[in-house]
Known about the structure:
The chain is an alpha/beta fold. The chain folds into 2 domains: about 10-160, Lysozyme-like; about 170-240, Muramoyl-pentapeptide Carboxypeptidase, domain 1 (Orthogonal Bundle). It is about 35% helix and about 15% strand. It has helices at about 40-45, 110-130, 140, 155-160, 170-175, 185-195, 200-205, 210-220, 235-240; strands at about 10, 15-20, 25-30, 55-60, 65, 70-75, 80, 85, 90-95, 135. The protein has a 6-stranded mixed beta sheet. It has a two-stranded antiparallel sheet with strand order 2-6. Strands 7-8 form a two-stranded antiparallel sheet.
Amino acid sequence: MRASINTTLNYSHNFDLKKRKKTQIKFIIFHYTGMKKEKDAINKLISQNSKVSSHYFIKKDGEILSMVPDLYKAWHAGISIWKNYKSLNKYSIGIEIHNPGHDNKYNKFTEKQIHSILKLSKFLIKKYNIKSKFILGHSDISPDRKKDPGEKFPWEFLSKNKIGYWHNLNEKKLQKLRNQKISKSEENAFLKNLNKIGYSKNLIKKNNHFIKILTTAFQRRFRPKLVNGVIDKECFIISKNLI
């Protein structure tokens, strides 16, 4: 039992032995497992051979497993950037949620999982004073490598419960802007907005392939109803609102 939340201990060996300070924890990063079987996902995260782990694991039935103590650095984020932070394992709590993912018939997250996400997130936000803009998905901090937790993750619902953030624009008005072409100057402004939000400046500078990857990550997070990697008027207006 951990203060105000019930967890089941299922410890992983995969973490740095050096303890960090409570004040170093600034982010919550959500992941999906991307594996067909829940049992296999759990076994991977606790196996010494896998070199991956997370602090918490949320099962399909909502049960929360505690795998790595908060003050130790779990190996969940890998190569990652957000704003001026690099290698986000140092600064974050990683939460894995069982879901087969995009390669295995990506499902909606269950109501019990969402209930546990709410409960665990609120507990961590309060304990570590985590800012709403520092609650992210793996695809936000590693957009060229990851898709999780994906467009079916309930970001908008969570933001209404003060977990993470969302735009405050009218959905019906926004939808009219979907697929509307934008000018080159608006496209450039959109990319600058992505950088201001926190997405990697290095990827923006590379080429059109990486711009599409970044746009896709942005859509998964803030415009999940259409994820196509194409910058349209709706994406541009949402990015302006977010900053």
